[in-house]
Amino acid sequence: MTEVNRNEVFNQVRDALVELFELDADDIKPEAQLYQELDLDSIDAVDLVVHLQNLTGKKIKPDEFKAVRTVDDIVDAVVDLLEAE
């Protein structure tokens, strides 16, 4: 399997955040805090997980997303999922 491209994953996560929550793409940086800076809430997080599941075709356990605090954390989680084959 090829190595997952972090940049591609970041771009997909950023696009999802823009599409789902009408965020400004310029505000979505790897270190951006999801809840404090981007104003997401737990319902938004669930919507994002569902969107990422559809995108990746992988089942995401809610537990895996409990520790997610930043955009980069989401990217890490998705990369781990994609590489866990």
Automatic annotation (TrEMBL):
Keyword annotations of the record: Cytoplasm, Fatty acid biosynthesis, Fatty acid metabolism, Lipid biosynthesis, Lipid metabolism, Phosphopantetheine, Phosphoprotein
Domain Carrier spans what residues? 7-82
Q: Does the keyword Transcription apply?
A: no
The pathway this protein participates in, as annotated, is:
Lipid metabolism; fatty acid biosynthesis
Q: Which residues carry this modification: O-(pantetheine 4'-phosphoryl)serine?
A: S42
Q: How is it modified after translation?
A: 4'-phosphopantetheine is transferred from CoA to a specific serine of apo-ACP by AcpS. This modification is essential for activity because fatty acids are bound in thioester linkage to the sulfhydryl of the prosthetic group.
Major location category of this protein: cytoplasm
**Looking at the UniProt record for this protein, which Gene Ontology cellular component terms does it annotate, in alphabetical order?**
cytoplasm
List GO molecular-function terms, semicolon-separated. acyl carrier activity
Q: By its UniProt entry, which InterPro entries does this protein fall under?
A: ACP, ACP-like_sf, PP-bd_ACP
Compartments, record wording: Cytoplasm
Q: What does this protein do?
A: Carrier of the growing fatty acid chain in fatty acid biosynthesis.
Under HAMAP family, the record lists: Acyl_carrier
Say which family it is in: Belongs to the acyl carrier protein (ACP) family.
Protein name, as recorded: Acyl carrier protein
Native source species: Photobacterium profundum (strain SS9)
- Lineage, opening ranks: Bacteria, Pseudomonadati, Pseudomonadota, Gammaproteobacteria, Vibrionales
Q: Which gene encodes it?
A: Z4854
